[in-house]
Amino acid sequence: MSPINVLYIIDSLTHGGTEKQVAELIRHLDRTRVQPHLCTLKPSSGLYDELDIPKICLDFSSFGSIAVVGVLRNLSRFISDNRIDIVQTFFQDPFLLAAMIKPFHRIKLIGSFRDLGFWRTKAESRKMHFACRFFDGYIANSQAVKDHFVAQDNLTPDRVAVIYNGFDISAIPARHSLDTTTSSIVGIVANLNRPVKRVQDFVTAAATVHKKRPDTSFVIVGGGHLQPELEALAAALGIGHCTTFTGMVANPLDYIASFSVGVITSETEGFCNAIIEYMACGVPVVASRVGGNPELIVEGVNGYLYGSGDCNELASVILRLLADSADRERIAVTNAPTVSRRYSISAMVSTTCCYYESIMTRKA
Q1: Any residues with CB less than 8 A from the CB of 7 and at least 6 apart, and which?
Q2: CA-to-CA dists, residue 58 to 35, 37, 67, 75, 175, angstroms
Q3: Confidence of residue 181 (pLDDT cuts 50, 70, 90)
Q4: In angstroms, rounded to a whole number, what is the distance separating the alpha carbons of residues 98 and 220?
Q5: Angle (CA) 46 15 17, round 5°
Q6: pLDDT tens-digit map of 274-294
Q7: Pairing of strands 55-57, 108-113
Q8: Intrachain domains 4-166+344-361 and 169-342 with the same fold
Q9: pLDDT digits (tens, 9 = 90+) for 25-83
Q10: Strand partners, 253
Q11: Cα dist. 158→18, 130, 186, 251 in Å?
Q12: Tens digit of pLDDT for each residue in 296-318?
């Protein structure tokens, strides 16, 4: 049996959470079962250059431009030349482009759902509803994400598979020992371009924590246009001297390994890669009780949940963990094996390949 030719279409392939997952999937695919191909809408570097597979950049600008005709023609030619069987899309514009090209090819379309649609407007939802009729299946990265889109887009539930993100266990740095004689580090990994990440809540809670435990320092890993505003807030709250902003980093794991507590403050979340990174490094997690976070965090077992936007509750939970090194160590011992067992790259890849094979045998 010949391997399935799969084309992954994504806006760009830089160092974001979804982008890293796509790159890891491509790297670890069993080439006897699946042959990967890549299409980006915009020029990329980094992860894009690292992948030695057939690929194309469409230089897509917008659907309102006359250049979209050439974009569709180039995409169509690439699909034909590489005998693509399945096109899997990530994000909205690739989803719409794939729907437009479907009538001209005997291909299967798979849409990826990786958040709770915080970016959707009514107009965008109408476009997505129309495009859905051309898709053969969907992959959601959490049950919460599946439930959301099944309801919002009136999808048949058995057309949506839940496949959790995978994590490369071999990438984990040595975990720093829990030494109660040294200062604690509370950290967060977040995209500072997205207000929904609510990193201001982390800064506000950090100020409360610092009043009770002045030896604590804080690290914000990630970059974006909101960083100056957050730096100003930290300074205004009197914790500028003990708060580090790393900016954008390619690999946050070295920072995470030094955390005493890892925090997620999002008001909406599909499947949070940062939580998996915290867990893999043996770091206790405090996360907002939204989206897919409760699927990852079992209260009191491998971390704690709090009400999104409640900075006082967030600070209280962090303080409780910092005061109890035995609890942090217990959680650390629990978290790393959980990632290895439930969220490994091999599990994600194997499940994804099986889903592709099922899609190929499914009648339209």
Answers
A1: 37, 38, 39, 78, 79, 82, 84, 86, 87, 88
A2: 20, 14, 10, 7, 42
A3: very low
A4: 37
A5: 145
A6: 999 999 998 999 999 999 999
A7: unpaired
A8: yes
A9: 999 999 999 999 999 999 988 888 899 999 999 999 999 899 999 999 999 999 999 99
A10: none
A11: 23, 19, 41, 36
A12: 998 988 899 999 999 999 999 99
Place of tokens 């129309």: 130
Q: Would you list the domain boundaries of the chain?
A: 4-166+344-361, 169-342
The token pair at 200 is 């201001």
Amino acid identity of 227? Answer: Q
Q: Which two tokens stand for residue 84?
A: 């693509």
Which class is domain 4-166+344-361? Answer: alpha beta
Q: What is the pLDDT of residues 207-238, one digit of tens each?
A: 999 999 999 999 999 999 999 999 999 999 99
Cα dihedral 194, 229, 254, 140, rounded to 10, equals: -10
CA distance 267 to 32: 41
3, 209, 243, 247, 311 from 232: Cα distances, Å: 54, 18, 11, 15, 18
CATH entry 3.20.20.70 includes domain 169-342: no
Q: Are 251 and 141 in contact (CB under 8 A)?
A: no
Stated pTM of the model: 0.84
Provide the token pair at 272.
């949070």
- Report d(CA 271, CA 296) in Å as an integer: 8
**How many C-beta atoms surround the C-beta of residue 191 within 10 A?**
17
Among 155, 224, 239, CA closest to 192 = 224
Query: Minimal CA–CA distance to 188: which of 297, 274, 309?
Result: 274
The structure tokens listed for 232 are: 């100003």
